[in-house]
Task: structure prediction
Amino acid sequence: MAAKAAVGSAVNRILDLLEASPDGLSQESLNQSLGSTDQAGAAQALNMLLSRRQVQIFKQGNTIVYKRPPKDESGKFKGLTPDDMLVYQVIQQASNMGIWTKDMKRTTNLQQPQVAKAIKNLEARNLIKAVKSIANKNKKVYMLAELKPSKELTGGAWYTDQQFDSEFINVMKQQCVQFVMKQGLASVETIADAVRKSGITKEELRVKDYKQLMDMLVLDGEVEETVSTGVGPFSAFPPDTVLYRSAQSQLSETSAFTNIPCGVCPVLHECTEDGLISPKTCVYYQDWLKF
Amino acid sequence: MKFLEYTPLARINAYLSTVNLGDSLLKGHLEAYSCKGAGLDKKHFRELEQEVIDSLVSSPSNLSISPVGPLSSSTSRKTFIYLVLAMNQVYPDYDFRLLHPSSFEKEDFESVKLNVDNYLLETAKVWACEFGEDSSLCNVIWEAIDEVIVIEDCDVYCYKPESENDDFTDRGTIWSFSYFFYNRKLKRILCFCCQCLSKLAIDDDSLEDICSEEETEYYFEGMDMD
Result:
């Protein structure tokens, strides 16, 4: 039929034009380049090519742009139903956060059996994979097979296999403390470099992670935080860098204040000479003076 | 697990799927499944069983005593796996294969009946309004369950959600229960799970999930809106 021939030639013409412009052609340019004879079949041709996935359609601002997909992509999606593609696109949009099946159903408006089938197809082709989120271990979350799950899902550096790895953290803390004691004075970056070089772990930890470790150690009382002035003992570090040194002021277990009853008295502020609570009637002193 | 169709259950299931309780919404499931696995099910079953055995090997003392019985026995393992598979059926958006046997607890039927009747008090009133005072929702439910699964031959298990990060204990859920009636002889498991959601906590997005369009109007009935 004449119409079919028109569509056929339009298909070929469009494919040639798009091959020639790897960055894509806008609707306008495509129409201009197509001769008037081919324009008739153009709309049908484009629809056919889109459904065969030999052409991709994008929106740039207000214009529609057509592009040839990269060579391997057409093969990737061959034989997938529109439902499968819809689910794939939704998963693609979620990028490395992944998407929960319930949200998938909501966005695609597909029913449970359809979504389940699409997921099965996509998984069979290794296009998507299931991931576990530490936020809710039981939810079924999927993402593109080639992506690495984000830190929010895996829990970041301190989680191994969805479990909080306190052993690992303790080992890392030890390393940091030892380095600080050896150096006397160190900044987060120098600590990070040294511990990385020691090769104690293959895990990639960023400076942010080391800062977390150092904050823990400060609160534990094992190291002290200080700021560099750029001069004197701090000359190795630029001014205003946060530095760490081993804890120098250790609080002693007992002191003069804690030895006498008044130092630890719970009602100290109510104690007056002639009041209900007074040194004369103090029960704590009675006990204390009994030796 | 194959879904088993029983008319009395289907009727109750349809009713319980959304019940408007005024300022809250009940969502329930009453479904029966056959444990006689075939094909894909058998594969899942074996995988799960292997996982349980592996974890048993790594920490034997932890898992030897569990609510479903000692995990070293294959019957207890079977029970646990059937429970997990049933959970997966009732809640298809979740995968409960990571569950620990301690998430389930064996219950005595009388206390379960008491509990359920208590929870469903409000719902029973709504049912009575619709179907007349003579019909008691709880009686209908227990009769139907007995017909399908013969309660006296059953072991009843309750799913205890973890205290945090679980949709069952999410904000907005006023109460929930998940009971599983397992009849070993009949190789059948019946799931009776209900959740009561507060309407105030449901925002527009999740409203679409919970109700279809006609139900949305029904949803607002009974709420004071001025």
Summary: Chain A touches chain B at residues 100-102, 105-106, 112, 116, 130, 132, 135-140 (CB under 8 Å).
